[in-house]
Design brief:
The protein is α+β, with helices and mostly antiparallel strands. It folds into three domains: about 1-50, no CATH class; about 50-330, no CATH class; about 335-364. The protein contains six helices and 14 strands. The protein has helices spanning about 35-50, 125-135, 145, 220-225, 255-270, 335-360; strands spanning about 15-20, 25, 35, 70-75, 85, 100-105, 115, 155-185, 190-210, 235, 245, 280-310, 310-320, 325. Strands 4, 5, 6, 7, 8, 9, 10, 11, 12, 13 and 14 form an eleven-stranded mixed sheet that branches. The protein has a three-stranded antiparallel sheet with strand order 1-2-3. The chain is elongated, with a radius of gyration of 29 Å. The chain starts with 16 loop residues before the first strand and ends with a helix.
Length: about 375
């Protein structure tokens, strides 16, 4: 049996104490009282829903076939350290990540062969059109930036991605609250009821992506998700023709922590969505166990543009399959200041008009 000093208060989470007068467990902080059986059951559920077991078989990819890489070359960027793969006829002159010149480092060899690839569905013209549309409605964008954004340098890049799939057995304990308010002639009242909601079940995950490139920011890659995996096909070098491909520099084993984080958050969100009818719901404890965890190595299509303006790097990425585009933009300080003055001027006029109306109504 768990020691009484370790029991947590269902209301505030503090340690409960046994009150000999009431013969009940009492919280010294919020003064809530509970039957011993109720508290014991509550804490048993908390303890049961604690501790993850999220291990993987992270082996992915395969060996290259004889002669398969003979026409592939590796280009190295001395600025950011990136290594880009391209067919000999495609070539590469600038790094897609930092836009600095690259030099051919030699014939491609080593590393793993991808299991799968999602081919580019949208061409360069579609990428340029999406980018122009993206910046066209930005009123604070400096005009000189539009003139110097090097749109012709948009590059089609296959980004290395580790795909994780498993079945998750989860047990979670949620703290839920319902509030009821009312008032009389003298006071306002609030009654808060606390509940423990326990959820157990299974949820399957397929193709949870974690990009295998240090140069590609995780948040940028995840922002252009989702990719339609139903269009993935077994890898063939022919799909690389006319495009660049990044060599992975983050292994599948080193990507497990990120995969587990994504799976854990998604599982908690899915289970929390089943706890309905309360004002607030918070996960107090959870345990996720993975079964049959496997990894695969894939290449995802991305149109990418890196450009510098006033000493700052701006990166844009577009899903080469769906056209979803994200990126950061500079703001013209002069335009921003003018807009701010316009807003504050309008507020000042509104306040002046309000003062006049009040002055007239009160006869002051």
């Amino acid at each position: 049996m768990t020691d009484a000093n370790e029991y947590k208060c269902p209301c505030c989470g503090a340690k409960l104490e046994f009150n000999s007068t009431a013969q009940r467990m009492k919280c010294p902080y919020c003064d809530s009282e509970f039957d011993i059986e109720t508290v014991q059951d509550y804490n048993e559920q908390l303890n049961e829903s604690t501790g993850d077991d999220m291990s993987w078989d992270s082996e992915a990819g395969s060996e290259w076939e004889d002669g398969e890489t003979s026409n592939m070359r590796v280009y190295s960027c001395k600025s950011c350290g990136g290594q880009i793969i391209a067919e000999q006829t495609t070539g590469a002159s600038f790094c897609p990540y930092c836009n600095n010149p690259v030099i051919m480092a030699g014939t491609f060899s080593g590393d793993l062969r991808p299991d799968l690839i999602i081919p580019f569905k949208l061409n360069k013209d579609a990428a340029k059109s999406a980018y122009e549309k993206y910046i066209s409605g930005k009123s604070l964008l400096p005009k000189v930036f539009k003139d110097q954004n090097h749109i012709e340098e948009i590059k089609g890049l296959y980004v290395p991605v580790w795909l994780f799939g498993a079945q998750a057995d989860a047990s979670m304990c949620f703290r839920a609250e319902s509030k009821k308010t009312w008032s009389d002639a003298n006071y306002y009242y609030t009654e808060t009821s606390y509940y423990q909601a326990v959820r157990k079940g299974k949820i399957a995950f397929d193709h949870v992506p974690v990009d295998g490139s240090e140069k590609m920011p995780d948040d940028l890659m995840e922002s252009i998700e989702p990719f339609d995996f139903t269009q993935a096909v077994p890898f063939k070098t022919a799909y690389l023709s006319g495009y660049l491909a990044d060599k992975y520099d983050v292994s599948s084993a080193d990507s497990i922590a990120r995969a587990n984080e994504r799976i854990k958050k998604s599982t908690e969100a899915a289970f929390a969505a089943t706890v309905r009818g309360y004002d607030t719901v918070r996960c107090e404890s959870s345990a996720v166990k993975l079964n049959g965890g496997k990894a695969q190595y894939a290449l995802y299509p991305v149109w990418i543009l890196n450009t510098d303006w006033n000493g700052t790097k701006y990166t844009f990425a577009m899903n080469g399959q769906t056209g979803k585009l994200v990126g950061n933009l500079p703001a013209d300080k002069g335009k921003a200041a003018a807009m701010f003055l316009g807003i504050t001027g309008g507020v000042g006029f509104g306040l002046s008009l309000l003062w006049i109306l009040l002055h007239m109504l009160t006869g002051g």
